[in-house]
Design brief:
alpha/beta, four-stranded parallel beta sheet, 3 helices, globular
């Protein structure tokens, strides 16, 4: 087997049964990182949804990456942030 690992990206809805689905996905194959990609939520809601997913990732030593928000990544102590065009300056991140 090669040294390849997966980079997973969350669906828009990560509540409900999604944490259990994430646990199964992380157990199924080698995963390097999980990107928390939810849109249209304030930071409080996003942080609340991120917490259980981040704990699942940490237990499996999978990097937890926040999409588009340096502020949210800092707030939750993420392993990194994915910045697209217009999401901020890489040097500031």
């Amino acid at each position: 087997m090669s040294g390849c690992q997966l980079y997973l990206i969350s669906p828009p809805e990560v509540g409900g049964a999604f944490p259990e689905r994430l646990e199964r996905a992380l157990a199924a194959a080698p995963v390097a990182a999980f990107q928390f990609r939810v849109k249209g939520l304030d930071q409080h809601q996003a942080a609340r949804l991120a917490a259980p997913l981040q704990a699942i990732c940490a237990a499996r030593e999978v990097a937890f990456i926040v999409n588009d928000s340096v502020a949210l990544a800092r707030r939750v102590g993420a392993d990194g942030v994915h910045l697209g065009q217009g999401d901020g300056d890489v040097r500031e991140a």
